[in-house]
Amino acid sequence: MLIVGGTGGTGSWFASYFKDHGFLVSVWGPSGRVEVAERLGVRFASDLMGEVSESDIVLLSVPIKETARVVEKIAPWMKPGSLLMDVTSLKSEPMRAMLRWAPEGVEILGTHPMFGPTIPHIRGQTVILVPAEGRCDAWLSPMEEIFRKDGARVEVLGAEEHDHIMAVVQALTHFAYISIGSALESLDFDVAHSRRFMSPVYEIMIDFVGRILAQSPELYASIQENPEAKRVREVYIEECKRLAMLADAGDLAGFQEAMKSAADHFQGTEEALARSDKLISLWIDNREGGRRG
Fold first, then answer.
1. What stretches in the chain show pLDDT beneath 50?
2. Domain count, the chain
């Protein structure tokens, strides 16, 4: 297996993961960081194109904006029966590129790990697989089985459905958290000081804002390039304006009705309340245990 971009964070994570599963892994990165390969215990592909032509699996772990260009360069050199994978957060454009440039006989499996390289293991995480129709008959089941055996939740989607869902699951939620962070900055609000007065719910929310803000700005900006994200952001902003107008006008009944309507559409609010109560209890136990320690 060759991982192009294997000296970066996500690529390194998958290099270790597949090495632990018995794959003979090599990595390549444009910075030529051979020391990363040595630290991972894998080979650095000094002859990139030669490695491409010999590998059973080529996994691309490169920035979204670079994916199509890298596919055009790499895919035509792959051998029949091999598998081309990517791990980008968008799927429509990368899948089109892979279908265009991969020779007949090369199978194609879009892959979206719904986690970052800081997690210690894949158990409990979600992995989305996007197999190319008619071009992933041999490799889909074995790759799916690897992830499932390790406790991951595997979902199989088409590229357009994937991007439609991710426009909300990723682009909208990230946008909302980052906008909270930006608002805190504009207000010159002292987050650290406010922790003295936080309820557990508020502190958990603030920690999630901080978690998002601690990630790669390049990656999170690229996720906003989802072709459906613009419409989703526009709807979100319009709803913020609508709720603000109700609050500014003192229309408490209107605000309450908007909240009730959103709850009716949301469904499962009681289940969400129960799950979040457990999360809050765990958070409190962890905090109090740390204080006692």
1. none
2. 2
